């Protein structure tokens, strides 16, 4: 076991692969079954002229080449046919746009960084795209309470960098941080790799400014950015994870978190998933408040990294499960002492068959590179069925085993890695090419198994178009009806982000 | 400066005083201005018989003596005239009750532990009380992910004790914990003394089971208790802090937090509030992840404690502001080292004029006793106007100064203590007896000043009856209208907890 010092570590965010890849759900919108254009008005020249008066000529994109990136999602899974992109710069402009779209019954897709993974941010037919990327002026940060108030169109990484100057950082970090916008993060209910430590966006959002898709383009103002305000309904939280179905988020007030002085990374090998759970228990007890990541890669992930990318495990003893454990704290000396004690305990108890602590930033990056590149390495197999599933830990790896048994030799690999600390598993099934037989073995089996075992078919990515058909699984009829009622309450003409998420 | 060891500390929750006291808002419901009984049906014998069939004889209280405690709030500020208390034991019973009350247009007050401080949990006229205290069977805790799922009628302290057996605790702690019920905590959006460290209930609630006041007594089921589930609207969060206006919470799924192994307490004296803010900045930097309380008592608070209770400050140097700082962590050795370094830094920089670290549990309790008894000591002055206000830190103590100037010699004392770390100030104005002149100087001045300076008139207690008239301050017309719309959406016959919170 190597024990060493780590003075500084570059960001370990899981990088979403930049290259377009073949993977699950390659349906274009026109191929989506049972999907017909809704009874919305079609865009007229008069509408365009009205928008140009509201936003100026630079605020309305009509050229097909300009519009193309807004019509396609980041994974190139979906392609819409919008003929108009609007780029408002102020909340007043967003409000005026929504008022007009309500009056005219024009369908609208709110779009932030367009980095979502479920097709929620692109048009399906000819919806107007309202892009929030020019709503990016306001940035106010008060370092004493650690409260940020900013426009929804600011890029997550830019916010993180600017907070860094004050010794703070954003509580969420995700692979798309260089492109995603904070308003889109909130609308998605994004999780990311810091969730185990800092909690979900519900733990941080204090208030939102939101424009409603109603006759007035009503603006729900942000209200004071206070850590505590217990007057009135906490309505802002309803827009977190609402996937652009209820309103357009134009401003965000939220807490930032102090940047840790010390980040430590270790890798542990375990023989069983039960041992992984025991190690998690020990990590919570011995690492306590400094535990910031608890990621797992199974031996199939390691084999794939080696075969497809030539990347070798940092552990010399092969193990069925590899745990990447990260701490973030305010004292390097204390954090290293805690981590050493924790590693010794795991080895002594026989919970781990091997363990190594990164001794440099470079080494820590090598550890994280295994986890970060897992997504890429498996794509070299040819075709990938990807999943973002939440399960109680007692069923976490049983899903992988059940899928392995079910698909047999139809799959090249059944690989699992994920955020064990959050109960979030990224199960991947690879094959040399798309196979309908494999598809039929997997679906709806995977999602039904998940909900039957108390899990969620979407841990962090949302529902969008990708999982809409499975949305009713595990939901009571009362809940599904209530979602429809809420949708109609906020969006009476159903003009906002139609065809997605809801099965009403 | 004393530096020492502290092995264990008893709960430091701020105790709500058990004795009935004279303080602000002593209006009984019948004296509340402009309040008329709504157009609700009156309870008939047939209703009572129906409820007895649903709940059994023990589930319906009709005797005046039995009902009296349900008609009066904990502070004896309000007294309702309900003639019927219902005690359902299951969600099905709650649903059947609400269905009948909807059909008959009978007004209902949901009541949990009845420990609220704004009159939200007692009837105003003859509303039926639906008490949740017998809905207290389910307790499921999974220690690996640290997830609790339980009935809404369980007492907070009981939950804390039962979690303690697993090495966990509830993330919230408040003075009323021996009587308050978890469902009531959620409905109130309770804060408490651990908020600085663990965040609000939004950071912990994963899912709720809720009964709606509609024609079916619709039950929104709890859904899976997962750390991550991003399918569907996050509607549970709308019921946090909804003050029993939108539905009845019958089950709660939430995260618990690991119990700290080490708790350290220190007191620091500062000459200015600006120095207090600088100390808070240093505490965040040097104590980081272990900082769990940052409380302030001004010199007037200390004088009052001495004069009325004979309690002496633990600091030998008198200071304008006294800071009670607590850390909670997983290693006593590390936590003490961090706290020592922090105290030395504050003294060296001249931010603190004196500082002392508790060396034993008894000493820590003495430190906390000052903070806990502040509320009681000032009551001996005679009459107290109390407040629960949230302000940006730059205005935090300016309110105290503005009030002091405004009331002059009309007040005996103007005292401030509070959770500085959360921006939450408990401003208190005392006099020998109630004075209308003093009242008129204070209101609406205090609340208008607060909202004009970006604050909230209720940081953690809620609105209820007590602050209803000031609810519109600082809110946009769009927000106020939206509250009314949300109310009607969930409660179309407005039968749930009428007369309170909302000004529609």
From TrEMBL, chains A, B:
InterPro entries: FAD-bd_oxidored_4_C, FAD-bd_PCMH, FAD-bd_PCMH-like_sf, FAD-bd_PCMH_sub1, FAD-bd_PCMH_sub2, FAD-linked_Oxase-like_C, FAD-oxidored/transferase_4, Oxid_FAD_bind_N
GO terms under cellular component: mitochondrion
Pfam families assigned to the protein according to its UniProt record, in alphabetical order: FAD-oxidase_C (PF02913), FAD_binding_4 (PF01565)
Enzyme Commission identifier(s): 1.1.99.39
Domain named FAD-binding PCMH-type: residues: 78-259
Catalyzed reactions per annotation: (R)-malate + A = oxaloacetate + AH2
Coiled coil: none
Gene Ontology molecular function terms on file: (R)-2-hydroxyglutarate dehydrogenase activity; FAD binding
Key words of the record: FAD, Flavoprotein, Oxidoreductase
Primary role: Catalyzes the oxidation of D-2-hydroxyglutarate (D-2-HG) to alpha-ketoglutarate. Also catalyzes the oxidation of other D-2-hydroxyacids, such as D-malate (D-MAL) and D-lactate (D-LAC). Exhibits high activities towards D-2-HG and D-MAL but a very weak activity towards D-LAC.
Family: Belongs to the FAD-binding oxidoreductase/transferase type 4 family.
Name of this protein: D-2-hydroxyglutarate dehydrogenase, mitochondrial
Organism: Plectus sambesii
